[in-house]
Structures are given as C-alpha cells and as structure tokens.
C-alpha cells in the first residue's frame, strides 16, 4: 500500500478498519480536555468498559451470597478460571488443558523453573538474551545462586547471554543457534522473551525451541510482550512452558494475574517436580482434604492457591473480546497500523532538516509486532516530555529511546497522523 501523511488518508484507513468499533469499548484518559493518543499498551493496556461490570458482578455475588458464591454465583468462583481455557488457548496456540491463570508473571516463571530448571554438575547452564527485562535477569541470578549452593556448580558460568553484534540493535537468529550448539550438553534451559521489551524484536520461537531440544534442554518463553500481540503456536512448536502477564496487550488491569502454558507432554510426568498447593489437587477429590498431593492432569495442576476472583474478572472481560475478534484480525491491523506509523516517522525525519530518528525495531514485519522503538538522535527527554504534555502517552527508555505501541484494539490510523503533527511541533518549537 502507498501511504500518505494526511488526515484524509488516515481517516480512509479507519473507515475500512473492521476493528474500529472496538475503540469505543475502551476508556481513554484525557490531557488538556482531549482524549489521549495512547502508545503504552505494551506497559498497561487501556481499561475495557465492560471490565467494571465483571468486577461489579463479583462484588454483588459476594454481598448476596458470601461463601456460597463459590458454587452459586452466576459465574461460580470454584471454576471461574476454567472460563479462560478456551479463549486463552486460542490466543497462544495451545490446547485448553495446557493453559491456566494464576499468580503474577515472575512468580510463575520461578514456579515453572522448579519443574524445568533441574541443574546437575554437568548440565546447569541457562541461555537468555542480553538486556532481558530486569525482572527476568534477577530471577535467573537468584535461581542460579540457589541451585549452585546445593548442586555445586560455579554460578558465574551458569548464565549465558546471547549478545548483539557490535553496532547492531537486534540479536541475530544464527547467533542464538550457534550459542545453543556451543553450550551443547551443558545446556539445561533456554528461556528468552518472545518479544524483546526494549527493541520490540520478535524471536523465531519455533526454530530456537527445536535447537534447544536437540541439546537435551528444556525451552521456555517469557511472553509478556507477546501474548495478545503475535501469532503463537506453543503446542505445535513443542515449547515446554511459557508465562505471560495479562495487563499489557491483554488489558486486564495493573499488575493482574498471569497466564501459564505447560505442554501436554509433561502433564503425566510424575517425576517432574513442582511446588504444590490445594488448588492444584485433583478437583473431584479436593474437599476430601487428602494428605498426598494428586495434581490435576493439565496446566491447572501447577496452580497453588485459591484464585483471586476480583483480579480475574477484568481479565475475563478482555479475554472474551479476544475470543470475539480472533488473533488473525488483530494481527492484520497490527501490521498495517505499525507500518503506517513507521511511514509517518520516516516522512517527518526526511521533512525536517537536522532530525534523525533511528527505528531500532527490525524493519522486517516477520521480526516485529506492535512496537516501534525509536532512538532520538539529536533529540532527547525534552521531546518526550513535550509529547506527554500534549496528550501523546508513550514511554521513555534510557539512554534515548521512546517506545511506541499502536495496539490494534483501540488505536486508530488518525491517531498515527495526529501523533505525527504533534511530533513535528515538538521538534520545531
């Protein structure tokens, strides 16, 4: 498509957008009395209007039924989480028995590492990406420290980071595969972010998973920036495990519950360790209060505690919208609106003398999703502050990067045009 940086052209794209009606399903903050242009769905998605009614329903059931709400609410709390199995499995390319909701993201990654990071003196290394999200880095460090004290390996050797080549912003697939082969039999686990939070790079999860398995390692993925954003086929790719937060592209609310995936090939492995709790016990026998843990066969068997229904309610509201739309339509709009944003950035870059924007996200649509990370050569925090003060909500990453994520559920093409106009004003003021 040949793009134009005009309001009329942007409006014509919105007129053809099959998802345009969903914009009215979300609540936008306002700045200076105007609805904002919202680019931070990669940090916290907007609130769906229907979320409040889902929370209110739980509050009403609690008031009217108290403990009996577990069984007699319109959506009984006892099996509330089971409503996520179908729609979430479609979002991540899994079977319904392979997904569950529980806890929060880093908690779940720690719990999954109980099962899938089982180091020995000779097989103890973890491959991760350079500049992983800090929470993942801290998780790796503490897991390695914990196990090294009992297993007896040197923790300094355990973490192997895949690095970017000098002068490059993204990690090459061939370098990931080469490092997996180099570590070889010492490799215990590959755990990488499916979409890098800083650059927006999408990794080839299928190929990397296959390579890790060839070395006898488990392979897991942190899908915080991937779930609800890219096409996933976790079952087909034979990913061992994955976890994701629900509050970015999945719009469930701040710090809300995490989703988990455990491949069906592990569901009946009785030798696989896990930390257990009452909620993961055989559902049919749970109230017999048996002394020996008998896990649910499936991802629900990794649950530990009674689930926080008030947290799950807004997540369910959003998940049902994903079920209505489907990932294919979201991805089609994602690709078009991200390309249009890229065009506008380049058009402004060329039009204003002395301006230089470097988009450090891969230009190949197959290697990126909704996010464009823009390095502001010759500009800085002052420009970011101008955008925020004028109703463009984006985020800043040191040393000089703004991340722009035009989430397809609620961002419009006219938003992209209007952003371009505000950006020009901020540069030339």
From TrEMBL:
Which Pfam families would you find in this protein's record? Answer: Aminotran_5, KYNU_C
Catalytic activity as recorded in UniProt: L-kynurenine + H2O = anthranilate + L-alanine + H(+); 3-hydroxy-L-kynurenine + H2O = 3-hydroxyanthranilate + L-alanine + H(+)
* UniProt keyword list: Hydrolase, Pyridine nucleotide biosynthesis, Pyridoxal phosphate
Write out the GO MF terms: kynureninase activity
Q: What is this protein called?
A: Kynureninase
Describe the subunit structure: Homodimer.
Family designation: Belongs to the kynureninase family.
The superkingdom listed in its UniProt entry is: Bacteria
- Which pathway does UniProt place it in? Amino-acid degradation; L-kynurenine degradation; L-alanine and anthranilate from L-kynurenine: step 1/1; Cofactor biosynthesis; NAD(+) biosynthesis; quinolinate from L-kynurenine: step 2/3
- What are the required cofactors? pyridoxal 5'-phosphate
Summarizing the function annotation, the protein's role is: Catalyzes the cleavage of L-kynurenine (L-Kyn) and L-3-hydroxykynurenine (L-3OHKyn) into anthranilic acid (AA) and 3-hydroxyanthranilic acid (3-OHAA), respectively.
Is Magnesium one of the keywords UniProt gives this record?
no
Question: Which organism does this record belong to?
Answer: Flavobacterium ardleyense
Q: Where does pyridoxal 5'-phosphate bind?
A: 105-106, 133-136, 222, 225, 247, 278, 306
Question: Which residues carry the post-translational modification N6-(pyridoxal phosphate)lysine, per the record?
Answer: 248
Q: Which residues form the Aminotransferase class V domain?
A: 168-250
Keyword ATP-binding in annotation? no
Known EC number: 3.7.1.3
């Amino acid at each position: 498509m040949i793009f134009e940086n005009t309001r009329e052209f942007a409006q014509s794209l919105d007129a053809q957008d099959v998802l345009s009606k969903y914009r009215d399903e979300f609540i936008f903050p306002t700045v200076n009395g105007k609805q904002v242009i919202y680019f931070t769905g990669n940090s916290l998605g907007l609130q769906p209007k229907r979320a409040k009614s889902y929370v209110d329903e739980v509050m009403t059931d609690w008031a009217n039924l108290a403990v009996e709400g577990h069984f007699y609410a319109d959506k009984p709390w006892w099996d509330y989480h089971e409503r996520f199995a179908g729609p979430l499995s479609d979002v991540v390319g899994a079977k319904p028995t392979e997904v569950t909701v529980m806890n929060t993201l880093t908690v779940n990654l720690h719990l999954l590492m109980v099962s899938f990071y089982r180091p020995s003196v000779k097989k103890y290394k973890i491959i991760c990406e350079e500049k992983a999200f800090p929470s993942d880095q801290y998780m790796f460090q503490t897991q390695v420290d914990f196990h090294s004290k009992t297993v007896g390996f040197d923790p300094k050797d355990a973490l192997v980071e895949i690095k970017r080549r000098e002068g490059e912003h993204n990690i090459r697939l061939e370098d990931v595969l080469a490092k997996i082969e180099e570590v070889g039999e010492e490799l215990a686990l590959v755990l990488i972010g499916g979409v890098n939070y800083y650059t927006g790079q999408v990794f080839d999860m299928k190929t990397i998973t296959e390579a890790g398995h060839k070395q006898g390692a488990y392979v897991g993925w942190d899908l915080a920036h991937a779930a609800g954003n890219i096409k996933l086929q976790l079952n087909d790719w034979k990913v061992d495990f994955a976890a994701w937060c629900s509050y970015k592209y999945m719009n469930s609310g701040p710090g809300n519950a995490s989703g988990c995936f455990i491949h069906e090939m592990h569901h009946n492995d009785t030798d696989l360790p896990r930390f257990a709790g009452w909620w993961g016990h055989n559902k049919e026998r749970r109230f017999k209060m048996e002394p020996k843990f008998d896990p649910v066969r499936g991802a629900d068997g990794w649950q530990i505690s009674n689930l926080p229904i008030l947290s799950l309610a807004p997540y369910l509201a959003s998940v049902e919208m994903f079920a209505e739309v489907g990932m294919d339509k979201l991805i089609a709009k994602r690709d078009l609106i991200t390309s249009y944003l890229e065009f506008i950035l380049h058009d402004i870059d060329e039009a204003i003398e002395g301006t230089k924007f470097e988009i450090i996200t891969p230009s190949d649509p197959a290697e990126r999703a909704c996010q464009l990370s823009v390095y502001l050569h010759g500009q800085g925090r002052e420009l970011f502050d101008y955008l925020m003060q004028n109703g463009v909500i984006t985020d800043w990453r040191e040393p000089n990067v703004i991340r722009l994520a035009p989430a397809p559920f609620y961002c419009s093409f006219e938003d992209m045009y209007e952003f371009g106009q505000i950006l020009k004003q901020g540069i030339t003021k």
